[in-house]
Amino acid sequence: MNSGYTLPPVAANGSLLGGLRPGPARLCIAIVIALCAVYVILALTPSSYSLAPGYLGLAAEQPLLGTARLIRSDEWLVYTPYVQIAVANDFGPVNTLGPYHETLRSFQALPLLDWGLLFKPYHWAFMVLPPANAYSFFFMFMAMAFLLGWALFLRQLRFPPLAALLVSATLLLSPFVQVWWTSNAGAFALAPWAAVAWLQIDRRWLRVLASAYALAVWLLAVAYPPFIISTVFALAVLVLALRRDALSLSRLVDAVIAGVIALAVFVGYFQDIIEIVQNTVYPGKRESAGGGVSGISLLAHLFPNLMTYRFDPLPAFQPSNACEIAVLGSLLPLMTLTLVDHAKLRQWAASHRAAVAVLLAGTALIACWIFLPVPLVIGKLTGFYMVPPSRALLGFGLLLNIGCAVALVYAGVRLTRRRLWTLVGLLMAGTLAKLAFGAGSFSRLHSAADAWPYLCVTLLAIIAKRPRFAPHAVTVVLATAALANLLGNGLFNPVQSARPIFAMDRGAVLQSLQARGAQAAADGTLVAPGHYGALLQGLGIPAVNHVLYLPQQAYFRPYFPDLSDEQFNFTFNRYAHIAVGEGDAPQVPNGDLVIVPAKAMLAEP
After folding, report:
1. What share of the chain in percent tops pLDDT 70?
2. What is the pLDDT of residue 442?
3. Which of 79, 322, 357, 439 is deepest in the core (most CB within 10 A)?
């Protein structure tokens, strides 16, 4: 029986401006547009490519702000060089400047002048701007797409405009998103747009076309199944829980039609490489069972920085790294436990039992996959076998944080002294718990990042004393969570100008490599001892050293004719960083690294 507490209404157009006064809204929009324009004009990016010069033996460079991250090698060692390759090839479909002549159509979208460009709006700037500014536009586009897309989705879940923006900002600035951002921005930023179009647009033909286009744009940007499946699961649970009114037969039919159209676009664009990837040893044959993620990761969603020191894992969680240890965390779960109005929350939950049940069941289901030893056969039945449990933390974090935001927005908060002190006490418990996870002094386990939550809660307590903020208590709490993530994670990725990326001294790099023992083969291909990712070909140097999105078995076979077919297939039929080493035979020390012997690559094939 409805007790009278109902869901807040959706604005007529579901926009972010509903309920806002026109004057302040226009001013905010003008400021955001101006900041975006300045960002692109200055050619700023979150790239860690400033590590490349030092890695290549040139004078070390520093970003404008923050610290370049070695762990973001998927970006500065792979994706950014591939963008350089696309630019150097005049956005053509093949890398004609390297020895492999590989296709540039890959599951990480590159700016190519083909029909797929219609579905890559984030790359349109490459057609009209200098490469540095266009690369800056790419990252600016993704940040705005994330912020606006998730905010619009939350509006469809009946969040007020400002609350939706603040929660969206909290998600954007979460550890998980930030540590994976520079090479997977499209997977995160473009995810909610198809759901927004499907929920918001009433005219059927337009709803189908907009949903299909948004879905195709998302799939072509970063076709990484673990993130896609994990996010789709979270979006489906949220819609089923909080927007069952939208699940009419006509909308469901439209969703199927849009999905078929988007899938046709995806298959049409990647038809030449889908089967190749599926038949690779890595990643095509990779399957995952459930479990294997530490249960401490669950607590890390409540206590920020519980498992890390300046983003890196504490000794108890080694070997790992900043990307593998990260969770989609914030202060929202802890704030929900301590600050939500429990009486109103119980009232809302009693009148919306189905919504609560779906949210809890969905969150519990994905948690089981992450933390419990679920057999592979169950994964194959559900599709989760393509999602390593550590990647499913994305979906779990979305459900947990948005679910907590739902509780705060729908039930309201009570900012009493006792509740605020309880929040501080729980934060302190998390701070002290870190002592159990590392051998070292307090200062070696804790950094300034551990102090930011306390600073933010202190600011919240000061504001709570002012009566004029009482009607806006929920907004203040959400703003505090967003601020904590901004201070704690906002500079994980640096601020770096893109201009040096497209203006490195190629001659100086060649001299440095030759001093390190690099030699040219008879056909002019450089064979440089060591691992350089795609850096060399990104600079226009035709080198054996490269990163191959797709296997190039025809290239390598003449160099290794004595390898059995089975051994050759195992070695070269994979996504691989091609490095050069010693010895007589190629080696595969891990799934994505192949070391070829210099002697063989310098010989006439």
Report:
1. 95
2. 61
3. 79
Does the pLDDT at position 391 exceed 50? yes
- As a whole number of angstroms, the distance between CA 351 and CA 4 comes to 8
0.85 surpassed by pTM: yes
Both tokens assigned to 234: 């979270």
Closest CA to 299 of 426, 166, 456, 488: 426
Backbone angles phi, psi at 273, to 5 degrees: -120, -10
pLDDT of 399 above 70: yes
Q: Which residue is associated with the tokens 């804790």? A: 446
Q: What is the DSSP code (8-state) at residue 290?
A: S
Run of H or E including 368: helix 353-371
Q: What is the pLDDT of residues 499-521, one digit of tens each?
A: 999 999 999 999 999 999 999 99
Strand-pairing partners, residue 548, are: 576
Distance CA 405, CA 485 (A): 15
Q: Do the Cβ atoms of 83 and 112 come closer than 8 Å?
A: no
Euclidean distance between the first and the last CA atom of the chain, given in angstroms as a whole number: 79
Assess contact for 3 and 350: CB atoms under 8 A: yes
Count of CB atoms situated within 10 Å of the CB of 376: 13
Residue pair 106/545 in contact (Cβ under 8 Å)? The answer is no
Q: What is the largest CA-CA distance in the chain?
A: 82
DSSP codes joined into one string, 99-157 = SS--B---SB----SSGGGGG-GGGGGGGTS-HHHHHHHHHHHHHHHHHHHHHHHHHHT
Question: Is residue 534 scored above 90 in pLDDT?
Answer: yes
Enter the tokens of residue 514: 């030759």
Residue 270: C-alpha distances to residues 211, 276, 298 (Å): 20, 10, 37
> Of 580, 578, 574, nearest to 550 (Cα)?
574
Which one, of 411, 150, 180, 174, lies nearest residue 301 by Cα? 174
CA of 448: how far to CAs of 310, 335, 369, 488, in Å?
8, 21, 33, 8
Task: Provide the 8-state DSSP code for 591.
Answer: T
Helix, strand, coil percent content, the chain, rounded in steps of 5: 60, 5, 35
Helical axes 175-189 vs 131-156, angle rounded to 10°: 90
